[in-house]
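1st attempt posting a full record on here, be nice pls
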Amino acid sequence: MRRRNLAVKSLTLALSLVLAVSSSALALTPIPPPGPQPNSTGLEGTISAPPPSTAPTIGVPSNGQVFSNIPITVSGLCSAQTVKIFDNNIFVGAAQCSGGSYNLQVDLFSGENDLIARDYDALDQQSPDSNTVVVTFNDAQFALFGTRVTLTSPYARKGAAPGDTLTWPIIINGGLGPYAISVDWGDNTPPELLSASNPGEINIHHVYNSAGTYSVIVRATDKNGTEAFLQLIGVATGKVSASTSSTKAPTTITKTEILWWPLLVMLVLIIAAFFLGGRQKLAAVRRQIEKSRSE
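the predicted structure (as tokens):
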């Protein structure tokens, strides 16, 4: 009788586990959607890193070369993200470091020019200076007019998200106004044409449609026909604005989870209950046989 009660209890426990496992397998667990949640606060930071330790090189032009036409090509080796060229310690152009080398065109000042290159990382930290290359520009227009127009900018590299307006300050020096300015933004759009009456700072504007890094070429011509050249790096970052992501309705994602360990426990209990029930039935048959023999 005790064994029968044990078998009944085992079967009852096994059935309870079957119901529990079935309920767990059918349960749908909500998972919060990825991305910003309503009333949440986002944090953005920059991980500090040491500045570039290796100086770039200037391989072209050679030290002591003399030029009568500008712009000239400057190229060499690099190790960081951006290479800036300085002429007589004035910024005159920038290029992307690609595959360990760079190549760009720069303007020269009349007379002697001391060229150096500097690497800059993503945090705008600079490397040591490159070797100094001294070249000479024999400027026929300078001898004729006494002054030449030049271009520079506070920014060698500037960016905006695709679809947003990129505003870039350009500084015009020297020459005689008015000035005609042409800007090739490097994205196969027609060059932007504008004018300035006097030397000083002007703002150029552009909207990139696709994310990427672009070579921006700015040219200026003054009233006397003297020309200036400046190469820069434009970046379309491709970032999505926070307002766009925060206005979307939250989405609930469901996931079905099946718990396997209760199934194993249930299987062991069913086997035990079957074994106990079989033994109880076998004992009853034996008692019946012994009773028949005694009669």
